[in-house]
Specification:
There is one protein chain. By secondary structure, this protein is mainly α. Helices cover about 60% and strands about 5% of the residues. β1 and β2 form a beta hairpin.
Length: about 120
Amino acid sequence: MNIIIHNSSMIPIYEQLIEQIKSKIINNELTENDALPSVRTLAKELKISALTVKKAYDILEEEGFTVTVHGKGTYVAKANTGRILEEYKKEIEKELETTIHQAKVYGLEKSEIQDLFALIMEEW
């Protein structure tokens, strides 16, 4: 599995794993019943603790993205379109927050930002 860990990032490693695996599921790079690497295999591949991988896998399962079959491994769960849509919305919200913050740094007022957004939506 092609996952890139940034050790110098302020984002904890387990969260980086979660986000990248979710992204692969949302973008259909991983589909229902695809097997994820074993905890030990992925830990060895990424040169991180198996406990970190286990924590990420546990959270992915709690959130409904994966299913673990004892003795067999962890698999991508059946697509939950509501959950995937919610993940898309979270990604868009982050991007909008970043853009709005940038606009404030540039000195734009709230009304100017709203006008820009309305203009873009009209064109779309």
